[in-house]
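Pair request: fold both.
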Amino acid sequence: MLAYWTVTRNSVLNRLRGATWATVMTLGFVVIISIQAGAYWLGLVAGGLI
């Protein structure tokens, strides 16, 4: 997912202006980090149940 975002972000973000670009970039990073943190937490919970 992180590799996909890194490759595709330039084609999307190059069309946006400064403030919008920063907002989309920040939101993208927050979403990726949230998904990874959720997966880690879910792994810890599942590990305790198995």
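--- second member of the pair ---
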Amino acid sequence: MALALLATGCGTQAHDDAVTQAMAWAGLHGETGRISCSSGFKPPGITAASKDFICLVHHSAARCDELYVKRTAGRWRVTLRRRGVDCVQPL
């Protein structure tokens, strides 16, 4: 379990910051619901963690909006990717 959390970036400062940014975006856009974020799959042999996060705004157990959260040059950017998608969090 700890390995899975480490591999996805969960619990890191970058992950926590991505969740905070996604929550701020959701609040500004009238989105309500729980926010969950993942950094995406890190293939074997890659040592650096991804700076990209896929976040979900949960509207129900089955319906979410998908956000793309990325930090570049010290600045965060949050972009709506898709609305009304299945609530399947990528690793």
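Observation on the second member. The CA atoms of residues 1 and 79 lie 30 Å apart.
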